[in-house]
């Protein structure tokens, strides 16, 4: 009987080069920036409107909206409260994405993408409000925020590679 040599499986070793390290650092810095910026943006915006101001628009701002379509339809304080709720939902969607582990490189990011789409909608709602009172500098800023959010959405949706 001939002795059979045990088959030793070949192991592949992958060395991590500078390019891989930079790629990982870029991914983690970018994804952290998205979660931190949008998370804190919507948290503090919602907190201010819903808790610090109890859903009531500040007097100076309310004066600017007096007599507008917002004032004569849903009301100034109701619109402020609804905007705060919209911002709170945007924050909660970002938190849900974190809780689902979508920040990991191998995971798809449908919840994060929904949160970014909701962020764009929220910026659009605020843009409408600024247009109503003729604050065109505010409109330009909000339009820029909405556009940048669209770019972030596109980067995550179309260019961010899923790693295995």
Describe the protein's architecture and organization:
The chain is mostly helical. The protein has one domain. It has 6 helices and no strands. α4 packs antiparallel against α5. The longest helix has 35 residues, at 18-52. It starts with 17 loop residues before the first helix and ends in a 5-residue tail after the last helix.
Uncertain stretches: none
The DSSP helix count reads: 6
Overall pLDDT confidence: 92
Basic shape: elongated
How many angstroms separate the termini?
45 Å
Radius of gyration: 24 Å
Tally the beta strands.
Answer: 0
Main sheet record: none
Question: Which structural class is indicated by helix and strand composition?
Answer: mainly alpha
Name the helix and strand elements from N-terminus to C-terminus, one letter apiece: HHHHHH
Helicity level, as a percent range? over 70%
* Whole-number tally of structural domains: 1
Strand content: under 5%
